[in-house]
Amino acid sequence: MITQASSSFLSRAYYWLELFELSLLPARAHFKLAREPLSQFNCGSARLRLKSSSQLVSRLSSCGALLTDWNNEIIIEHLYELYLKRNIRRSVEWRQVFQNWMQQKSHIIELYTHFCEIYDLDYKFQERELHAWRMMLRATGCTNITPYNKDVSCNKFWTNVPDPEKDRKTIAKLYKEGLLNVNSQADTLWNCFRNSYNANSKGIDGKMRILSIIAENFTYKEIIEQLEVSPNSVSMARKHSRINGPGCPALEKPVIVRSKMSEVKEKEFQLFFADKANVNMSFYKMDAKTQMPVLYLKDQKSALWKKFSATYPNRMKRTSFMYVSLTK
């Protein structure tokens, strides 16, 4: 009879025996599936069959490797063949990721910052490549300890210790206290412009002047999505930038002339809206300023233009309907 402890010991012994046998094989035979078992061990009623590479790959994919196995070329090469070879470029020095990680004092890395040592700064990762790297890191005993989701930031923190709970709590506490800078420089720039734009008042010396700083350098879509402004605001800001310069004060401010409506026109306007043949009165919606019921026109503006139009003897046409808003 074989006890559970002795069975676990034998399984571990066969595992290292298999690695030793693989190290003696030629390089071409490392990843070639063996048709026949290399060795057969009988221990009581238990029969174990070990194959050269397929057995090792299946065991590594299910159990993974440890930090102490990173210096083992056989294990790392098997994991590279399994996860990275078909998903990354051959020119990428993928071993540097693990070597630099082992040489640093801390067990925690920021994933994309760590990748900058082997990739170009402007390199854009594909989702398939990132997924392959995540699978590779998990297979080598690493753990994702990022305390937030991807909506907050794209930065990811990983650790290579067997028990990641301590590092996970450390990162979570730093993030909670606001000591973890997870925003990129682009996000910080947009946040600054958004806060400045919202803090200023409307007008040519306020929001338009702030928006004119970046209006010519970004597309309509980018500005509208990031700052939540209207296309008309972007257009006016671009015009301000071309005439006065980006962020500069206006050289010639527009002259605004306000004139009051005459008493006769105001009375006619009130009589028009008092006639139930022209408007419908709301029974539940009130104007917040005047506390009077809201009135809705029965006809559309085009119909009103035709209804109140007149043709003079000299064939000049004119309409007496004006679509205005009265405020007291």
Largest β sheet strand count, sense and barrel closure: 3 strands, antiparallel
* Beta-strand segment tally: 9
Output the radius of gyration: 37 Å
**Count of DSSP helices?**
13
Helix percent band: 40-55%
Q: Can you write the helix and strand succession as a string?
A: HEEHHHEHHEEHHHHHHEEHEE
Distance between the termini: 99 Å
Which stretches are poorly predicted, pLDDT < 50 over at least 5 residues?
1-10, 19-53, 323-328
Shape: elongated
Structure description:
This protein has 328 residues and is of the alpha+beta class. Among the domains are: 185-244, no CATH class; 263-319, no CATH class. It has helices at 4-24, 54-63, 73-84, 95-103, 111-115, 127-139, 165-176, 185-199, 207-211, 220-227, 231-244, 263-274, 301-307, and strands at residues 39-43, 46-50, 108-110, 143-144, 157-159, 279-286, 293-297, 309-311, 317-319. The strands form four sheets. The protein has a three-stranded antiparallel sheet with strand order 3-5-4. The chain has a two-stranded antiparallel sheet with strand order 1-2. 12% of the residues are buried. The model is unreliable at 1-10, 19-53 and 323-328 (pLDDT under 50).
